[in-house]
Amino acid sequence: MKGLETTIIPEPSLRRLPLYHQILELELENNTEFISCSKIAEMLDFTPIQVRKDLSYINLIGMPKKGYKVIELKDEIENFLGWNRNDEAFLVGAGNLGKALLSYAKLKDKGLTITAAFDKNKNLAGENFFGVTVFDISKFQELTYRMKIHIGIITVPAPEAQKVADIMVKSGIRGIWNFAPSKLNVPEKIIVQDVNLSSYLAVLSQKLK
Amino acid sequence: MKGLETTIIPEPSLRRLPLYHQILELELENNTEFISCSKIAEMLDFTPIQVRKDLSYINLIGMPKKGYKVIELKDEIENFLGWNRNDEAFLVGAGNLGKALLSYAKLKDKGLTITAAFDKNKNLAGENFFGVTVFDISKFQELTYRMKIHIGIITVPAPEAQKVADIMVKSGIRGIWNFAPSKLNVPEKIIVQDVNLSSYLAVLSQKLK
DNA sequence: TAGATTGTTAATCGATTAACAATC
DNA sequence: TAGATTGTTAATCGATTAACAATC
Predict the structure, then answer these.
(1) Domains (ranges, CATH) in chain A?
(2) Confidence of residue A209 (pLDDT cuts 50, 70, 90)
(3) CB-based contacts with strand D under 7 Å?
(4) Which nucleotide lies nearest residue B38, CA to C1'?
(5) Model pLDDT, residue B6
(6) pTM above 0.90, yes or no
(7) Which positions ≥6 away from A116 have C-beta within 8 Å?
(8) Which residue has the closest alpha carbon to D24 C1'?
(9) B186: distance to nearest CA of chain A, Å?
């Protein structure tokens, strides 16, 4: 039994864990057995100290002089991130961006399976993209209840995002992954994760100057 | 003439500016004339202090008791972010994600126009998506030189991203917006902006627990 | 053994938050 | 005028970096 007191991981560290995982997958393909923080850092242009600190939030001991066993560290990160559990999500907006996400098979390896897509365009209902069936948006609530889904993905244009969010909230969705460039108005208890391309673009342009 | 000493904006503040801009566009549609930091903060679930601090990096004075003129603040943010200049970019990878970006008309309002797309699939050469022509990847270098492009967007699958980055570097691209979940190996002087979905997903899952 | 690397505590740095004078 | 809000300087908080003992 572990202590009750668990240091919670800072968000910046949490965001870096998937990057470490990606490196570990590459190294595993090369049959590397051990990897050190310095090696990981070098590959990602981070500092070794930062990598070591980040990994300290994970339940794993490395070996002095050798580093971490690649397979163990990879598994432990997956474990920490919950990538071996499998969450199901519903996606709303079967346009190009929606289809891009549906086609992205790697999501499954990261614990997320999109089990159905929805769209307001009735012509799309019944279509199948990358093995995922599209339903009319009117079916969202019923199916969410029936399949006990609690993650929703929004890939509709900005002006429709709020309407979709309202439907999701009403249907009992607890977490929303929002790809529309709109600030969603939802009850406090709903988790919203925004992917805002404009912010990236602002940083890129600034750095280019 | 301004002083030589300009306080540079912290990256977190820079990333928030586009969010403020979005709010201002909404308010402008509503014909709101003035807006205060508190109002902006309330709409985005930020603190008023943070908004005020962020806006202080921008060259604009507000009016005590009233706030900022919506139109002025909007223009000044656009100016600060360089959204009235227009940069041209080439996109490589005309799959679903690539098409999603090509269809996203709002990019133009943010100073970025994608003027051509490239793909290694020769069947796509000559196709036109949302007004943008697709060329074979072999044409990338020549067209980049000729059109003096210095921003590249990578929307190919992970295993091909490095190859594309190499072509971009060789062609004189200075900034890369990378949507592939791979760490790119490029010379130090090249700016890379990664959009890593796994990091978002990690944060969302963590918060849901 | 010597040396490299981990794990962890302490120091530093930078962003966020607070405080408050200036102003309309 | 009183009160709300800006603009800016100071205090706080948290993440990053440094330092160093422990270990194989």
Answers:
(1) 11-81 (1.10.10.10), 87-199 (3.40.50.720)
(2) confident
(3) A 10-13, 46-47, 49-50, 52-53, 63-65; B 36-38, 48-49, 52-53, 55-56, 60-68
(4) D5
(5) 62
(6) yes
(7) A90, A91, A132, A133, A134, A135, A143, A147
(8) A64
(9) 11
